[in-house]
From TrEMBL:
The keyword Ion transport does not apply. It catalyses: 2 [molybdopterin-synthase sulfur-carrier protein]-C-terminal-Gly-aminoethanethioate + cyclic pyranopterin phosphate + H2O = molybdopterin + 2 [molybdopterin-synthase sulfur-carrier protein]-C-terminal Gly-Gly + 2 H(+). SUPFAM superfamilies: Molybdopterin synthase subunit MoaE. It comes from Christiangramia aestuarii. InterPro entries: MoaE_sf, Mopterin_biosynth_MoaE. Heterotetramer of 2 MoaD subunits and 2 MoaE subunits. Also stable as homodimer. The enzyme changes between these two forms during catalysis. Its EC number is 2.8.1.12. Belongs to the MoaE family. The lineage of its organism: Bacteria, Pseudomonadati, Bacteroidota, Flavobacteriia, Flavobacteriales. Pathway: Cofactor biosynthesis; molybdopterin biosynthesis. This is Molybdopterin synthase catalytic subunit. One of its GO terms (molecular function) is molybdopterin synthase activity.
Amino acid sequence: MDKKKPIKVFVQGAIPPEKIANSIANHQSKTNIGAHSIFLGQIRADEIDGKTVSAINYSAYEEMAENVFHEIREAAFSKFDITCAHIYHSLGEVKTGEICLFVFTSSAHRKVAIEACNYFVEEIKANVPIFGKEIFEDETHQWKVNK
């Protein structure tokens, strides 16, 4: 069996709406697909200790993170009958209201697409070495705690 090379996941800055729209449009010709599930992670303007988050600056051990993304992707294809899956995650600064995570799964049926998408999101949050530094409106910052 050929060992697949990890797919590039990281995008510098926010994930643009055009990338999301193009991903959807590129699947219209795939007539064996009956369902897509999409998760979009957006930066919230959380209030923490009286200060409001204005952005998150993401960093990662990129090579290690790409390998973990690859392992999650391979496990998902073994576990679910999905046709395709795409994952993009931001690096660098992403402002409140902007998209930092885009997970897109496709399958013949909706239940599988939804379950696979949820699997990806939970595995990414739990296992990928990505770090977010919350930047507050007063320009102070702190490391983000995943919830």
